[in-house]
Specification:
There is one protein chain. By secondary structure, the chain is α+β, with helices and mostly antiparallel strands.
Length: about 100
């Protein structure tokens, strides 16, 4: 983003879900009735240490440097990368994965 948002969002964002910082990058997933946000940095650190990133039948893997989500059967799941404030406002009932 070339530093555009370094001091916060450039427009009003409304009510903020306090579970994560507003500009935390998340990998958002909606699959089989589960809506979950995976904080990108936590997921990358967990995967780099050999840990598992899983929630509600969704597994996040590292693929050529990018995060990718797959189902229990190994099929690719559509994801959306977003700032937390945006994902949480459009998906107010979302769960948040956290490293265990």
């Amino acid at each position: 983003l070339g530093g555009r948002d370094d001091r916060g969002p450039i427009f009003p964002i409304g009510d903020v879900d306090p579970r994560l910082p507003v500009q935390e990058q998340v990998l958002g997933v909606m699959h089989d009735g589960v809506t979950v946000a995976f904080p990108e940095l936590d997921a990358r650190v967990t995967l780099s240490r050999g840990g598992a990133v899983e929630f509600g039948g969704v597994t996040v893997v590292l693929d050529a440097g990018a995060l990718r989500a797959v189902s229990a059967s190994g099929e690719a799941i559509t994801t959306h990368q977003a700032f937390w404030f945006a994902w949480s406002q459009f998906n107010s009932g979302t769960e948040v994965w956290a490293p265990g």
